[in-house]
Amino acid sequence: RTAEEYRDVFLGRLDAVVLAEDLSSSERDLDRLVSRSLAPMSPSRYCIAPSPAVRLDKSQVMPFALILHELMTNAWKYGAFSKDGGIVHIAWKVSAKDGNPILDFTWREENGPPVTAPPRHGFGYDLIKFSTEQSLHGTVELVYDPSGFRFRSSTPLDMAQQVLSALASGP
Predict the structure, then answer these.
(1) Which of 18, 91, 92, 164 could make a disulfide contact with 105, Cβ separation 3.0–4.6 Å?
(2) Contacts of 92 (CB under 8 A, 6+ apart)
(3) For 81-108, what is each residue's pLDDT tens digit?
(4) In whole angstroms, what is the distance from residue 117 CA to residue 56 CA?
(5) Is 98 exposed, middle or buried (0-12, 13-18, 19+ CB in 10 A)?
(6) Measuring CA to CA, which residue among 55, 14, 9, 13 is closest to residue 31?
(7) Do the beta carbons of residue 107 and residue 151 sit within 8 Å?
(8) pTM for the full model?
(9) What is the number of other CB atoms lying within 10 angstroms of the CB of residue 137?
(10) From CA 5, how far away is CA 79, in angstroms rounded?
């Protein structure tokens, strides 16, 4: 890589950190984090499925912001955002495991170039895995399907966190 490429990667990750810090000191809403992370892209290039409103714990904002940044960067360089007509579908839901809320998050690319698994995993892959497994205490699945890359994570939501849509729907 050139010095300019390293600079651009560093500045992109720094922007993700700044975004996370901004959100972690305020609303911490997952939808807002996703929308702000995708702000550089035209809304015609992504589709956020109707999903429950989730308020993240302050400790979850930074890892999610870094994961989203890496997914977006890779989509821009190699995936759906690198080709006209490519689109990313994003959705999440809250389920329960042993009575505890679990956030299931998916990122699915389509209409991009054919996908193949990379010959080696780089820093971005390690950052996604570490952020999901260590920082969020969750599981992650990265699928390099020829028709489009897919990311899925399942992470516990703290019991103190409320799923806002459940409150909104009432009894």
Answers:
(1) 92
(2) 30, 51, 52, 54, 103, 104, 105, 106
(3) 999 999 999 999 999 888 889 999 999 9
(4) 31
(5) exposed
(6) 55
(7) yes
(8) 0.80
(9) 11
(10) 18
Strands of 87-97's sheet in order across: 46-48, 87-97, 100-110, 148-156, 139-145
The tokens for 107 are: 């990122």
pLDDT confidence tier of residue 136, bands split at 50, 70 and 90: very high
Phi then psi for residue 80, to 5 deg, are -60, -35
3 state DSSP class of 41:
coil
Beta partners for residue 163, in sequence order:
54
For residue 159, the model assigns a pLDDT of 42
Residue 88 to residue 81: CA distance in whole angstroms:
8
